[in-house]
C-alpha cells in the first residue's frame, strides 16, 4: 500500500439481598419483643425514648442514602459536559476528508495495480516513488491526479471552521513566533515526506504569532476558511485560513 494513501486516510448495581430461611421452634420476633419490653411502669418511658431514638436514626440513614443517590446523576452529567469540544460554538468542527471532493477520494481509495502490488519499503517501492509516479502522472491516471489535486469543496468557502492538524512553519515574527504556516493532516508532511494533495493542505495566517514547542504535537485551529490557492517551494495549499483561535489537540469524546 502506498504510504501516501495510508497517511491521507487519517471523525459510560444494585445488590440483591438473599434472605435465608431458618428452621426454629421458637419465634424470634416474640423473643425479641420480650427482651425489650419494659417489666415495670417506671421502665416504660425509657423504653419509649429508646424506640424513638432508633426510629430517628433509621430515618436519618434513609435520608442520607436518598441524598447520595440523588447526587450520582449530577456527577454523571458533569462528566458529559467536560468531554464536549473546548472550541467556540461558532466554529464547526470538520475533518480533513471534508475538504476533498468525492471523485478524488474514490481515486485514492482504489489505487491502480502498480501501487497495490508493490511491497512497502522495498527497493521497487523507492523507485516507484521517484520514477514510476512521474511517468504515470503524464498519462491519464486518476490516482496520480488525485495526489496533486487542487480541486476544492466550494461550499467550504467562507465557513467558520475548527479542525486539527500539524504545523509546518513558514514565516516568523521578530520574536520568533510563527505567523504563517501550513496545516497538514499528519506529522512530517512537507518536511520528511512528500506533501499531501493540495486539497489536504491549509495555508494559515496569524499575524499575532504563536509558539509551537514541539512540531510533533497537533493543534486545533479555528478561523474563517477560504478556497484560495497558495503555493511556495514547500507545498501547495488549496485552502487558506485566517486563524482566530488555537489550542493543543485533544480528541473529542461524545
What is the topology?
Elements: H1 3-8, H2 28-36, H3 44-82, E1 92-93, H4 102-109, H5 113-116, H6 123-137, H7 142-147, E2 160-172, E3 178-184, E4 202-210, E5 219-226, E6 230-231, E7 236-237, E8 239-248
Parallel strand pairs: 1-2, 4-8
Antiparallel strand pairs: 2-3, 2-5, 3-4, 5-8, 6-7
What does this molecule look like?
There is one protein chain. This protein has 3 domains: 43-81; 87-101 and 150-254, OB fold (Dihydrolipoamide Acetyltransferase, E2P) (Beta Barrel), CATH 2.40.50.870; 102-148, no CATH class. It is 34% helix and 21% strand. The protein contains 7 helices and 8 strands, in the order αααβααααβββββββ. The longest helix has 39 residues, at 44-82.
DSSP E strands, number: 8
Low confidence ranges: 1-8, 10-47, 69-85
Overall pLDDT score: 73
Order of SSEs: HHHEHHHHEEEEEEE
Strand order across the biggest sheet? Answer: 2-3-4-8-5
